[in-house]
Amino acid sequence: MPRKAYIADVTAANAQNIQGITSVVRGDEDGDLNVCYAPSVGVPIELSLMALDVGGYPAENTYMISTLSDMLPDGVNEALQDIQETSAGMTVPDLLMAISKKLRKVLATGTQDNPFDLDGASDVEMPDNEDEDEEEEEEEEEEYPDSDDDWKISTGGRAISTTISLSKQDAANINRRIRADLRTAKNAGFKIGILSGMKADSVSSIVSLSIKVDRLGLSEEAMQAWDLEPQQYIVLLLRYSFGYKDFETIMEQAAKACGVTFRIGISNKYKPTLVEALAAFTEVKKGENKQNDPTQSQSATQQEKPVAGFSNLFISSSLNDYINQQFVSLLKIRNSFAISWTGAKKWFNEKQSRIDNNSAELPAEYYDSDNVTDNTLPEFLSNDHLTDNHTLREPVSFPLIAAQFSLQNLVRCTQYCLVCHDKIEDDFEALKPYVCSKPLCLYQYMSLGFGPSVEHEILTQPYVVDLLVSFCYASASNLRLREYPTGMSLSVPPVTNRVTNAMPSGFHTHLSPLPAPAAKEQTEEVMSIKYDMTHQEVVLEEGQVCPVRAGDWVVISVFGRPAEHFRVEDVSYLPTIKLSQVGVTQKSWKDQPLNMTSSTTNMAPVPATPATTPPPSALILADMAVYNHNFDDMEDLSKAESIVVLLETLPSIKELKAYLTKQCRHSEPNLRAWQDRVSPAALGLLRWIIASNRSCIIQVDKCPGQEDHEASDARIRYDQKLSNIADGWVQFRFAQGAPDKEQRFLNALKQEQGNFDANFPTIFAWHGSPLPNWHSIIRHGLDFKETLHGRAYGHGVYHALDQATSTSYAQPRTNSAWKGSELQISSAMSLNEIVNCPTKFTSSNPYVVVQHVDWIQCRYLLVQTANSSDPYGYGTGRATTGAVDANSTTNTLNEVVQDSRLTAKSTLNKPVGIPLCAITTSRSFRPATVEKAETAHLAKKRRQSRSMDLTAGAASDSDELIDLQHLLSDEEDEPQGKGMGSSQNNGLKNSTKQVDTEPLTDFVPGSLDQSQLPMLDPPSYATSMATKSLNRCLKEVLEVQKKTPLHELGWYIDPELISNVYQWIVELHSFESTLPLAQDMKAAGVTSIVLEIRFGKEYPHSPPFVRVIRPRFLPFMSGGGGHVTAGGAMCMELLTNSGWSAVSSIESVLLQVRMAIMNLDPKPARLESRSRVGDYNVFEAIEAYKRACAQHGWQVPPDFGDFATDNSNPSHY
Questions:
Q1: pLDDT tens digits for range 151-209
Q2: Could you tell me if 654 and 570 are in contact, meaning their C-beta atoms sit under 8 angstroms apart?
Q3: Cα separation of 84 and 1048, whole Å?
Q4: DSSP secondary structure string, 651-668?
């Protein structure tokens, strides 16, 4: 893992004796290192090293290097800048060695112009260096470039050209190859989307290759299980970070240095927007957990959702990791030895190294068939572009190979391990992928998030997740768990109080009661502390050793109050420990206060312990326990107690979904970012609950309290509901049970095929069981290991043909509902499919008692909720039929014909209508008429899918003009009168040029009057390091702006207005026409919101100051919104020290500012009436910013005062 490698290298670097490096300490942020360099003479130099891409460490990572010391010797800043520009791909030890060597060379004589040679070479100036210096001086003397497209700001504030320098012939050749590669992919059946760049001189480019879901040949069951719709697109994004590279170039370079990264996802359109693509490549940054408010209304969420709707697939995390880490290596192996993907993977697994001898012959075992030509795959996927083009000796399209590889692994994901991606040797193919039998893969699947995405499951199937968590909570609360999340090394708080049922009524348990902790154990596990509930601070007693560090979790217990869980924020002011601003209150189903010891009974304030900071006004006695116990080392009873405690700290499923919905607009959704609300232990437990369930459960019924738009987003399949069921039950369907259980069920059908009626190979019957049993049932199936209700009719699993009979066994015996549940389940029962051999049952009347557990498979799960109109499920409500819901298409022609002797009936005393989708496994044992109809239906769909013209390169109505022009343009070939593909596409080119397109925005760039803007001279606090850092930022932003359509980007920076790198003028434009703000702008004749961004001397370690210049917004007190203060400053925690991260890009800041202004919650932004004219001035913005920070408790940046004191021309404000 890159992150583990980074941490290991930091540890190794700290242990090494690197000359001059006296300390290497990890900072508060991910990727931040604080390094101290002590020269032989002089004051130590404090350095800050920020790894910008820890997830791609080391190959894709670069560093931002800055100094924290003042009065640096001459040459140090320049030396560090040189190292920074060459730091790409360096490991931490190598970077520190380079810094040590460079600084020793600079500080040997005090300047960089006359360095001392540490390598023993002659101390003579080299002519080459002198020539380079002269060339650099000449470049710095250049004034503005001829084109406005390519800009960078020099240290003096002037703009110079820094694009990739190519000759016209080289540029023409590269552009020709780019179009040829993309045309090849389009001719193979993929849609191409140009999101940015993709030209010879483009430093950074993003391109998408997509295919419609209905062309993948997936079964309806698979599409439903994978949460896919036929009209959606599977999209592969390719990002080129260092210019476009063709197949031959990539094959010549190291796999980790190719500069191409990938993301795969699902989209409603054939290409996502640039904003969505950038979000897909953006890792979650520190502080985003504070920005995302889970209380945001769903209406606002839906209105702000991007139109393309690009999002992760259910296995995007696993596929992205596999493609980014191994695809290029596997391709290089295939290219060298002419073997299949299977052979290349086998070589990679065994060698795990680069190819030493390309001419070496491989054993025959590596040339095994890849099975790509399987008839189940569509033709465009079964084709192998690499071998086809080697045969034809034509150029190879790297994007096409990447797309074929990605989609092949997606379509066949159930055949391969999610972690190691080796083939799984299972006879029964699951609907959802899993891991192989290797212990390491199972550990990574459960512990490290390599399994199904928790975030994706919550976003797409929140009520199924609710169901799973509720079952686990009920099972743990009543001591009914059979297995625990061991091997995950969860750090949990000590068990000091019982939170489970000591002896559940009506249940048997093998666990002995939890003993009361001894006095000695109490002292070791629980500390008596003083707690300030107002400021969330803990003060240790004199002599107490601090047991925590920043990032740890603790439990604070005060007598008479529920236990509260906090994340430790700061321990640098001992004996005071700063906790997270808001604690997580433990919500117990018992609804009673929790306490740890009797020491907390005194609630009277006590004097504060003297500290380096002013003491709080009053403290109370409390107990504190630390999350420092290894879950694996606990007894089973303590494990059950810990699971209950952790689940009681989880947010509700509704809160989790709201948080992720907002988060996914600007980055990949990740619950780890909600670090002050969800503890690592609770998140690990949630991952285990979801990942350990191998059954595929889908929602086929609307849940009580579920909004219509939520039900629509969940794509509930009402046509798969059971009919003739009382409406007091909420239905879920097992699209597939656990694969091993399905395999045993299939084997049982084969074994008994001669013993049952061919017309009715299976029957259906009900099984009711108390809520605590269902966690194990849905994972391992039904069994009869324990006797809970007696066995008057023999040993076996008891079923009833009448639902009313089973209902009584499903009624709750204890109140153990999870408080975070939206469902609030009170009881559950299942409709099971059973091999129809009643003569071999233990009993068939009055109960169906089946002693062979492999003959039973759950097909439907029915639950009752706390707010059900029919609390006992006996049919007081109306029947659930196809006519109940307008979306339902259920009819008897699509239902299973039941055996008249053994017919399952509902509480309404009517035969249950069971859709045909419930007999997926037993379908082949049914009459030939049913099988024939199903086969014909699938064959028709397959023919329709394959009848599409896969080689069509012509334009379609859905292709955007910009993509067609990029693919069909041959501008560099026109002078010669010929070019690649010019004749075959000439007609199409002419037709596309005649398209009359209307402007997509009313914004006109470059229309601002500079004389009416508050332009500044370079500030007195400007430093070389900050200036160069801003140079790079501006260059990157302008590069994105140059390659992106104005209406899609939504912001604009005029390079002509950038004369001071510390001040940027930005215009926000092209807002959605339905927004009240857009309507006000149109009425006022305004086409853009003019912003000013100022950067301080501490940037990027402190946030920029962002304010509106014009027009004026309606203040919040007057009914306005949009996060704009009365003085024009932006009211966003992101732009304060409390929410800022040094790795935040200006591009992402602009995106989030634009989204904040568009936000409709709590009120939409509106413009001020014309009664008040004039721009905002900087002084009222500064004061408004300070007021907002004080009101919300945000920290003002330490260098913020510079924005008010260093104004070159105050008259402009």
A1: 333 333 333 333 567 888 888 889 889 988 998 888 888 889 998 888 888 888 899 99
A2: no
A3: 33
A4: PPHHHHHHHHHHHTTTS-
Answer positive or negative: Cα dihedral of 269, 275, 279, 281: positive
Find, among 122, 671, 161, 694, the residue nearest to 452 by Cα. 694
The span from the CA of 741 to the CA of 858, in Å, is 10
Closest CA to 588 of 644, 640, 641, 627: 644
Check if the beta carbon of residue 878 is closer than 8 Å to that of residue 727.
Answer: yes
* Plot region of 1208 (φ>0 → left; ψ -120 to 50 → alpha; else → beta): alpha
One-letter identity of residue 635: E
Q: According to the model, what pLDDT value does residue 502 have? A: 55
pTM: 0.59
Report the DSSP beta bridge partners of residue 913.
723
Q: What is the pLDDT of residues 620-649, one digit of tens each?
A: 999 999 999 999 899 989 999 999 999 999
Stronger pLDDT, 1025 or 231, i.e. the higher one: 231
Going by the DSSP 8-state scheme, the letter that residue 1103 receives in this structure is P
Contact 304, 269 (CB under 8 A): no
Mean pLDDT of the chain: 76
The predicted structure's pLDDT at residue 765: 95
DSSP single-letter state for residue 324: I
Q: What is the pLDDT of residues 944-982, one digit of tens each?
A: 443 333 333 333 334 555 666 666 655 544 444 333 333
Q: Between β-strands 848-850 and 797-799, what pairing exists: parallel, antiparallel or unpaired?
A: antiparallel
Coil, strand or helix at 743: helix
Rounded distance between C-alpha atoms, residue 1097 and residue 1089, angstroms? 26
Preceding peptide of 58 cis, ω within 30°: yes
Instruction: Supply 536's token pair.
Output: 């969330």
Pairing mode, strands 260-267 and 233-240: antiparallel
Cα 783 from chain centroid?
38
| Amino acid of residue 476 | A
Q: Which residues contact 1143 (CB under 8 A, 6 or more apart)?
A: 29, 31, 50, 52, 285, 1100
- In three-state secondary structure terms, 960 is coil
Q: Nearest Cα to 785, choosing from 475, 480, 476?
A: 480
In order of 222, 256, 321, 631, the CA distances from 337 in angstroms are 35, 20, 25, 48
CA 1153, CA 646: separation in Å to the nearest integer? 36
| Distance from C-alpha of 607 to C-alpha of 619, rounded to nearest angstrom | 7
> Both ends of the chain: CA-CA distance in Å?
51
In the prediction, which pLDDT does 33 show?
87
Query: How many CA atoms does the CB half-sphere of 956 hold within 13 Å?
Result: 12
Q: What's the pLDDT band for 1025 if we cut at 50, 70, 90?
A: confident
Per-residue confidence at 452, pLDDT binned at 50, 70, 90? Answer: low
DSSP β-ladder status, 233-240 and 205-212: antiparallel
Contact 750, 790 (CB under 8 A): no
Strands 1089-1094 and 1063-1068: antiparallel
Cα separations (Å) of 572 from 474, 568, 608? 41, 11, 17
Q: How far apart (Å, rounded) are the C-alpha atoms in residues 1133 and 304?
A: 20
Model pLDDT, residue 893: 57
- 182 with 176: CB under 8 angstroms? no
- Element housing 466 (H / E): helix 462-477
Handedness of CA 248, 254, 256, 257 (dihedral sign): negative
**CA-based nearest residue to 279, from 660, 664, 661:** 664
Number of H helices, E strands in the chain: 36, 31
* C-alpha distances out from residue 1021 to 47, 470, 1205, Å: 19, 57, 11
Q: How many CB atoms lie within 10 A of CB 1054?
A: 17
- Mean per-residue pLDDT, 737-746: 80
C-alpha span between 517 and 1112 (Å, rounded): 64
Q: Among the residues of 811-918, which ranges form H helices? A: none
